[in-house]
Amino acid sequence: MTEPTKPKLTLNDIQMRDPFVLPHEDGWYYLYGSTDKNIWRGPATGFDAYRSKDLTEWEGPFPAFRPGPDFWSDTNYWAPEVHRYRGKYYMFATFKADGVCRGTQILIADSPLGPFRPHSDGPVTPRDWECLDGTLYVDDDGKPWMVFCHEWVQTKDGTVEAIELSESLDRAVSAPVTLFRATDAPWVEPVKSPKNGEGYVTDGPYLHRCANGTLLMLWSSFRGGRYAQGIARSESGGVLGPWRQEPEPIYESDGGHGMIFARFDGGLRLALHTPNRSPDERPVFVPVAEVDGRLVAAVSS
After folding, report:
1. Residue 159 in domain
2. Which domain range does residue 204 map to?
3. Would 1 be classed as within a structural domain?
4. Is residue 293 within 8 Å of residue 212, measured between CB atoms?
5. Is residue 3 part of a domain?
């Protein structure tokens, strides 16, 4: 069956938070993110995906995930990431329901465009923790981990945590290990809200292995009232760290929740959303380069 033709779009046409890009061997880049018009409240619709051959013109939206009538969550569909693992495609995404803690559930599909369906039995994050932004990391021994955030709304000083996953990615097989706290980074400043008071945010972890073997973690918080993209490095080269914070963000122009992907020509891009306000947020791809195990802004090419 021939797929319907989709209109060509630019990134400026796509309202999206938390962008994630999957370059695929079929020659397409697949783009995922938080795509509900209002992700903060009200009934959620699902996750849409887009695809492009050149990162400039995009086709979509394609309905990558739509909840079934018995799906447990109906709000806060956030930060989908899609990872290829053992021939399948796994979506790690954040969900919430009234009276149920926010958490990351794992979905599965046979193709990058889905349709994705539940794989884990609800969230794999602790059921009594408010959590978000789970990401997959497979270590050098082939062991899968999920790195995620324990939210500041519950802890006041948000943390980044790691749990080991089963080989089938359907459940956690270890207790969480705290990797670091928001206040471990010297650049992070507190946020305030009428409901939750003052606290320090951790958002959007993503792990990137440099060509020289250095393991970096991108994560986001706030500085000067604006969203910012920070980086930590593992002193052991492994997921359990210890993690040392870079003293300054790599991006602080009211954007974040980033990840790193390689273009088909090998050039690296930092994908993030900016500005950090709805409905104006858009995905942006910032050229970066590795220099001695660090990520630095590069000249666009």
Report:
1. yes
2. 8-297
3. no
4. yes
5. no
